User: Which sequence fits this backbone?
């Protein structure tokens, strides 16, 4: 009994924090089911009557789905690229002794310290020179490049933990280094690959700054960009913007529900190694 | 592990043939193989991470509107202009305030909640899931949502204030307090991330240590102060690092919530850089801001590694020890 009462203050504090987190979500969710007039009279209560028009309007627009697909395509392409290139490099760093290894690895590790925002203007100039503005590659390639350091560091640690005997056995069986990498190491590294992939997907999905400067063409916009532009367009129609915001949250939150474990393990690995 | 030198056979190693030349051949082809594996990543990294820093350094020495090649060399004039600019000094001050707020409010809050959720209380899995959810949202979506919540008339925040009989507040248009509104949103979005890191750290602390301390007569606070906190040190130091680096490059939330206003009161370096570079096409000056951001991050990161993280590298987190 005493133990039960001791935790009461904890429950109160955690509860207050939970309300602080939940209220904006609830406001958005219910707000989307109201008209804007209803919303300003009754901001937090249940909608009455429930208006589904805002949500159906958003879902019926081609713009939303196009942005969703753009975000998806860019996230998948970024992830495949960064994970594949990082795995190759991490393999060399983990299992070869070669001259310049420490130097090259340090070079990548220093990359962890570069805030993305620092590079955005010169990146824009470079992408313009290469003709990659208004081109998905203009977002995919830099995102992959900036994802390399963390991905390489996490994968290298994992690759090192695989015993040498495995490689010796594979080599005796006639595996080339690439064969070992492709047919033995990568399948063994599946959990680590899942972790770094999840991190790369989330980083790409949420990126706003780079698409903002690279994409002028609305057909290429990703969701974060689309939400911001939608707000500009429907400035007066708060309820409709809320519906757009909520619908845009769904993929990220669904992904969180599915990949929570990889995400958390990746973030904590990143945090202790970064 | 003595490492890959101990690799037994060359690629495709068929035993018995050319035994004499093998040693030399293995070294040579091993180096080439390794480089071939690193090369694609290295090319991408050099081209799109390292080169931009050099480009920024070069253009920051020019007066350039972005059309044609930069030809008007002006030495360090952009940097003297930067240091004499009230806006830039304001950016530094705003960044400093946000860093201090994060360190004295947000991180202790995250730590406190992590300690609470580390106990066996009902629904803790749900709380953990919930507190982390905002971190999953993009800054853009968070920014749009909060710009509606904090909007002056119809916004939720002011509706609540007036329904409790309080005066409505200009959340995003009051120069003296706009940073606090911004910080409120930052906390909403990020405290769950720090909490999750702390929770992982807490779970790495053996339960026996707490029990031993309790048997020795230490109360809850003393156990936290003399057992939990020291053992959590490495985790806290990393979370401080991430928080500061994140604040230095803060852009998305500010841009969407306030655009840096009113009258630059919430402007950050990244917002100034965007404003000058992309809105006013003063590319040279904007590059100088990029370079300044880079130098500030670099000095902070190196100093932090040298003076704060060093202890951790020598001991606690052994995974780092071998590559620094």
Assistant:
């Amino acid at each position: 009994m005493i133990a039960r009462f001791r935790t009461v203050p904890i429950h109160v504090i955690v509860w207050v924090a939970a309300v602080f987190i939940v209220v904006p979500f609830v406001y958005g969710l219910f707000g989307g089911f109201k008209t804007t007039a209803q919303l300003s009279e009754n901001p937090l209560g249940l909608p009455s009557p429930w208006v589904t028009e805002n949500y159906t309007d958003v879902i019926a627009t081609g713009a939303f789905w196009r942005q969703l697909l753009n975000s998806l395509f860019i996230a998948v392409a970024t992830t495949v690229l960064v994970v594949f290139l990082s795995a190759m490099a991490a393999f060399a760093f983990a299992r070869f002794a070669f001259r310049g290894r420490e130097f090259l690895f340090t070079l990548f590790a220093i990359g962890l310290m570069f805030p993305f925002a620092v590079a955005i203007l010169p990146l824009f100039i470079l992408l313009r020179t290469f003709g990659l503005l208004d081109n998905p590659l203009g977002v995919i390639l830099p995102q992959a490049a900036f994802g390399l350091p963390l991905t390489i560091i996490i994968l290298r640690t994992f690759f090192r933990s695989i015993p040498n005997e495995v490689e010796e056995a594979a080599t005796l069986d006639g595996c080339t280094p690439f064969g070992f990498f492709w047919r033995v190491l990568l399948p063994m590294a599946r959990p680590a690959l899942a972790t770094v992939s999840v991190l790369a997907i989330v980083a790409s999905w949420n990126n706003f700054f780079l698409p903002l400067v690279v994409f002028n063409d609305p057909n290429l916009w990703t969701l974060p960009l689309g939400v911001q532009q939608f707000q500009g367009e429907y400035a007066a129609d708060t309820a409709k913007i809320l519906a757009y915001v909520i619908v845009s949250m769904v993929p990220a939150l669904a992904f969180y529900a599915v990949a929570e474990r990889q995400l958390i393990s990746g973030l904590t690995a990143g945090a202790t190694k970064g | 592990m003595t490492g890959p030198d101990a690799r037994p056979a060359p690629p495709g190693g068929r035993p018995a043939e050319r035994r004499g030349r093998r040693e030399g051949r293995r070294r040579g082809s091993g180096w080439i193989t390794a480089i071939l594996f690193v090369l694609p990543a290295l090319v991408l990294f050099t081209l799109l991470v390292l080169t931009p820093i050099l480009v920024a350094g070069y253009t920051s020495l020019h007066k350039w509107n972005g059309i044609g090649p930069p030809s008007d060399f002006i030495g360090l004039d952009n940097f003297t202009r930067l240091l004499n600019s009230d806006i830039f000094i304001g950016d530094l001050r705003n960044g400093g305030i946000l860093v201090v707020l994060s360190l004295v409010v947000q991180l202790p809050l995250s730590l406190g909640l992590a300690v609470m959720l580390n106990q066996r209380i009902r629904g803790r899995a749900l709380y953990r899931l919930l507190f982390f959810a905002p971190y999953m949202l993009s800054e853009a979506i968070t920014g749009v949502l909060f710009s509606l919540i904090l909007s002056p008339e119809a916004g939720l925040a002011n509706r609540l204030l007036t329904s409790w009989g309080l005066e409505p507040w200009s959340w995003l248009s009051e120069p003296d307090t706009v940073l606090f509104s911004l910080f409120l949103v930052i906390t909403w979005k990020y405290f769950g991330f720090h909490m999750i890191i702390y929770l992982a750290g807490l779970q790495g602390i053996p339960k026996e240590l707490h029990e031993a301390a309790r048997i020795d007569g230490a109360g809850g606070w003393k156990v936290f102060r003399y057992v939990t906190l020291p053992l959590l040190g490495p985790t806290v130091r990393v979370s401080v690092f991430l928080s500061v680096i994140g604040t230095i490059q803060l852009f998305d939330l500010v841009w969407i919530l306030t655009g840096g206003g009113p009258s630059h009161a919430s402007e950050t370096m990244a917002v100034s850089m965007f404003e000058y570079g992309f809105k006013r096409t003063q590319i040279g000056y904007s590059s100088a801001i990029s370079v300044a951001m880079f130098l500030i991050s670099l000095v902070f990161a190196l100093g932090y590694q040298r003076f704060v993280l060093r202890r951790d590298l020598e001991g606690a987190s052994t995974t780092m020890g071998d590559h620094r």
Summary: Chain B touches chain A through 106 residues (CB under 8 Å). The CA atoms of residues 32 and 125 of chain B lie 50 Å apart. The first strand of chain B starts at residue 62 and ends at 63.
